[in-house]
């Protein structure tokens, strides 16, 4: 069920009312009793996660983000060395294959 915002044009009282979609629009102000109540246009509802039922691990902690950044920065030089070793290895195997074909 949605929550509607109401405002009284007589006394400027504002409040929210939790009512079903099929319920009629309220006209009488609960504070002053005048029939000058109007329903305001809202911006819409947002998803709000309250209460239990959500895991703490659903969102990454700051310490996890720091460790992940450190891991990627420390492994970057190793990747470049590893790539150079792979290129040298592929050259060696291609020269070995050429020598085997020549034999």
In angstroms, what is the radius of gyration? 34 Å
Following the backbone from N to C, one meets helices and strands in this order, namely EEEH
Name the shape in a single word. rod-shaped
- Unreliable spans are none
| N/C terminus separation | 84 Å
Main sheet record: 3 strands, antiparallel
Tally of contiguous helical segments: 1
Sheet with most strands: strand arrangement: 2-1-3
Estimated structural class: alpha+beta
pLDDT average, as an integer? 75
What percent of the residues sit in helical stretches (DSSP H or I)?
A: 25-40%
What does this structure look like?
This protein has one helix and three strands; from the N terminus they run βββα. The mean pLDDT is 75. The chain has 103 residues and is an alpha+beta fold. The chain has a domain at 3-39. The chain is rod-shaped and about 70 Å long. Strands 2-1-3 form a three-stranded antiparallel sheet, with no helix packed on it. The protein has one helix spanning 62-102; strands at residues 3-8, 14-18, 37-39. Helix content is 40%, strand content 14%.
Task: Report a brief summary of the structure.
The chain has 103 residues and is of the alpha+beta class.
Characteristic key phrases:
single chain; 103 residues; alpha+beta; three-stranded antiparallel sheet; 1 helix; 14% strand
How would you summarize the topology of this molecule?
Elements: E1 3-8, E2 14-18, E3 37-39, H1 62-102
Antiparallel strand pairs: 1-2, 1-3
